[in-house]
Amino acid sequence: MQIGIPRETLAGETRVAATPDTVKKLMAAGHQVLIERQAGYAARYRDADYEAAGATLGDAAQALGSALVLKVRRPTPAELSAMSAGTVLLGMLDPFDIDGLKTLADAGLTAFALEAAPRTTRAQSLDVLSSQANLAGYKSVLLATQYYGRIFPMMMTAAGTLKAARVVVLGAGVAGLQAIATARRLGAVVEASDVRPAAREQVESLGGKFIDVPYETDEEREIAQGTGGYARPMPAAWMARQAELVAQRCKQADIVITTALIPGRPAPVLIQPETVEAMKPGSVVVDLAVERGGNCPLSVAGEVIDHNGVTLVGLTNLPALLATDASALYARNLLDFLKLIINAEGQLALPADDDIIKACLVCQDGTLLRSA
């Protein structure tokens, strides 16, 4: 198949859907690869390196006109107009945005949204959410160090001792666990909270202290187990108890990093405005959920603001700030997914009984397969 890799046009999107390394593997499998000139520039991959790997350079129309198109983000209307009916599209397509998916179906595409892959052992190598969240969790701590006016580790000097920073991480999924590990490596004292009881062991294995909110009913305990590796909305009574305990910890913290997201829903509110009001001057809140409404109502998407001496970091798309590594991981995710949908003859083949393909296939030959 001819595989096209266009340059991403969304503002602030610096990632690319293929690297010279994955292009080389696609070429070895017998495919033709056409990449738009400068597609990898923002991620620091040179056109010359793609050519050396065997790719052909072209313009956006040629890349989008390929039989199979690899993208990072969902195509814009202008990009869709350059794609032909029957084109196969892979990318992060926001599978819960039905109106957005309908535009892909109306264009006659067969599209796969990789964010919809199940959280199973077999799907780990193509789990784009995990690969990108890992980097977002790491970058969130580095952003905190940038806006926090003190150091993270305890430091003993002739002029006196500097105390270690106190970090609270809310949400111990992939991003949260990486944030815990990174903050600990920098010498901070770390506490973390999550609705899932299984998260305690993971938090403690990384050197963090788990903020325990006891379950009072069997219903709370059952819901806390989550579904398919994702958290579920907890009952109001448990959320109230968690909010009270989290508020106490946040008031004592120097850094708060929030990572809580529930697929297809607005981000849960974990830090109330009155909690921010009570935080120490110089504290920092990094809200990784800001694109979905934020875990803190005061966060502003795309901005860093000062609220009564507390810095609220609402920067979006943190993986794009680490574009070289983020692209490398994402391109490998795509490569592993392609192995599921392309047969030994190099043609598209979709096994009807494959749970990963069924989960990710959002439209086929112009037919929308997901509903609100």
Account of the 3D structure:
With 372 residues, this protein is α/β, with parallel strands linked by helices. The protein is 34% helix and 18% strand. The chain contains 13 helices and 17 strands. It has an 8-stranded mixed beta sheet, sandwiched between helices. α6 (128-147) packs parallel to α7 (174-185). The protein is globular. The model has no long low-confidence stretch (mean pLDDT 93).
Write the layout of secondary structure elements.
Blueprint: E1 2-5, H1 20-28, E2 32-36, H2 47-52, E3 56-58, H3 60-64, E4 68-73, H4 77-81, E5 88-92, H5 98-106, E6 110-113, H6 128-147, E7 155-157, E8 160-162, E9 166-170, H7 174-185, E10 189-193, H8 199-205, E11 209-210, H9 218-224, H10 236-252, E12 255-258, H11 273-278, E13 284-287, E14 304-307, E15 310-313, H12 323-341, H13 355-360, E16 361-364, E17 367-368
Parallel strand pairs: 1-2, 1-4, 2-3, 4-5, 5-6, 9-10, 9-12, 10-11, 12-13, 13-15
Antiparallel strand pairs: 6-16, 7-8, 14-15, 16-17
Terminal Cα span:
33 Å
- Let me know the largest β-sheet: 8 strands, mixed
Structural class: alpha/beta
- The SSE order reads EHEHEHEHEHEHEEEHEHEHHEHEEEHHEE
Could you estimate the helical fraction of the residues in percent?
A: 25-40%
Low-confidence stretches: none
Strand order of the largest sheet: 3-2-1-4-5-6-16-17
In total, the number of strands is 17
- If you average the pLDDT, what whole number results? 93
Helix count from the secondary structure assignment = 13
Query: What is the overall silhouette?
Result: globular
Proportion of β residues? 15-25%
Please tell me how large the radius of gyration is.
Answer: 22 Å
